[in-house]
UniProtKB/TrEMBL annotation:
<protein>
    <submittedName>
        <fullName>Gfo/Idh/MocA family oxidoreductase</fullName>
    </submittedName>
</protein>
<dbReference type="InterPro" id="IPR055170">
    <property type="entry name" value="GFO_IDH_MocA-like_dom"/>
</dbReference>
<dbReference type="InterPro" id="IPR000683">
    <property type="entry name" value="Gfo/Idh/MocA-like_OxRdtase_N"/>
</dbReference>
<dbReference type="Pfam" id="PF22725">
    <property type="entry name" value="GFO_IDH_MocA_C3"/>
</dbReference>
<dbReference type="InterPro" id="IPR036291">
    <property type="entry name" value="NAD(P)-bd_dom_sf"/>
</dbReference>
<dbReference type="InterPro" id="IPR052515">
    <property type="entry name" value="Gfo/Idh/MocA_Oxidoreductase"/>
</dbReference>
<dbReference type="Pfam" id="PF01408">
    <property type="entry name" value="GFO_IDH_MocA"/>
</dbReference>
<feature type="domain" description="Gfo/Idh/MocA-like oxidoreductase N-terminal">
    <location>
        <begin position="2"/>
        <end position="112"/>
    </location>
</feature>
<feature type="domain" description="GFO/IDH/MocA-like oxidoreductase">
    <location>
        <begin position="130"/>
        <end position="240"/>
    </location>
</feature>
Length: 343
């Protein structure tokens, strides 16, 4: 059995991680949970039948020696906690965003030594996304040309009463970093590397330090172009992706997760996924555990896990500087490599 620990016992641990782990109960055992709020940790453990509750990550790692740790804490804690787990000999599965900068991400990768840290971008793993990538790789849709990537969500003022939200130091960014990353990650998994981005970001209404809206135009290495919108000001919420290929248009409309019914293709005869797996934590966890059992680098770790954070960095760099930014510019001497607001 793979011994698993949960760090952070808030809503995402309860609603996302525990159901995913329950679906893998034949090969995982949740041995401990950690939360700085001891009473909350104990209540979480009691609700899910977890034997040990802790308030200190280091103590849990020393006593329990888990094989895999799920990091479900606020973003500003991720880099330090992930590195601590890796150095203790555990694999890590971390909620998005994996950290607050490319510099932090590279420190995480440098700490891998027979252990790996993967970020949670579950939309890559639904059957619709997997089928689309197979069609693209096989050439059935023709070359990709145009894409739309829209995260139009709504978060009211009360949402930002949580102290770490909407601040560069603790959340790392606004909806570009904390909300739109799921759709942008799925777009990148289909279209590949980008070369140039031109962006704007603005705080229009919400009581935050960061933006509450961002928009970007993107040129990809394969010649395709995309338009990207991230918003938390949209009362009618929707997540929307559109890919126009030479021979077909593929669209995805959903909110926080999709099944095959959320996809359409024109012409429709090209769209026949062999299975129907919703995008979910459970869908991605299967791949992570398979990689663990084989001793191989899991999906969305290392360079693959860095891809979307790099895109977010380029978007912010363009928005702050008011000029186009090339992917090749995001080197260690670039201020946006170290902070997403450029310092």
């Amino acid at each position: 059995m793979i011994r698993v620990a949960i760090v952070g016992t808030g809503g995402i641990a309860d609603l996302g991680h525990m159901p995913a782990l329950a679906a893998e109960r034949h090969r995982v055992q949740v041995v401990a949970a950690v939360d700085v709020d001891g009473s909350r940790a104990k209540a979480f453990c009691a609700a899910h039948g977890i034997p040990q509750a802790y308030i200190d990550l280091g103590e849990m790692l020393a006593r329990e020696r888990p094989d895999l740790v799920h990091i479900c804490t606020p973003p500003y804690l991720h880099a330090r906690q992930v590195v601590e787990c890796l150095r203790a000999g555990a694999w890590v599965w971390c909620e998005k965003p994996p950290c607050l900068s490319l510099a932090e991400h590279d420190r995480i990768t440098a700490a891998e030594s027979g252990t790996f840290a993967a970020v949670i971008f579950q939309h890559r793993f639904g059957s619709g996304a997997r089928h689309l990538r197979r069609l693209v790789t096989g050439g059935e849709l023709g070359r990709p040309m145009v894409a739309l990537c829209v995260t139009a969500w709504y978060r009211d003022h009360t949402y930002y009463s949580v102290p770490w939200r909407g601040r560069w130091e603790t959340e790392g960014g606004g909806p570009t970093m904390g909300h739109g990353v799921h759709q942008m990650d799925l777009m990148l998994s289909v279209l590949g590397d980008w070369e140039e981005i031109r962006a704007m970001a603005r705080r229009i209404d919400r009581p935050v330090e960061t933006e509450d809206v961002s928009m970007a135009s993107v040129r990809f290495a394969n010649g395709a172009m995309a338009s990207v919108v991230n918003s938390v000001l949209s009362p009618r919420e929707e997540s929307y992706l559109r890919f126009d290929f030479a021979e077909a248009t593929v669209e995805l409309r959903h909110l926080y997760g999709y099944s095959n019914d959320n996809w359409t293709c024109t012409p429709p005869h090209l769209w026949k996924p062999p299975d129907d797996v919703p995008s979910s934590h459970a869908a991605q966890l299967t791949y992570l555990l398979d990689a663990y059992e084989r001793g191989e680098r899991p999906p969305l770790s290392g360079a693959e896990g860095r891809q979307t954070l790099e895109f977010v960095t380029g978007l912010y760099a363009s928005a702050f500087t008011g000029r186009p930014v090339r992917r090749s510019e995001l080197t260690m001497d670039n201020p946006f490599y170290h902070r997403l607001d450029g310092g």
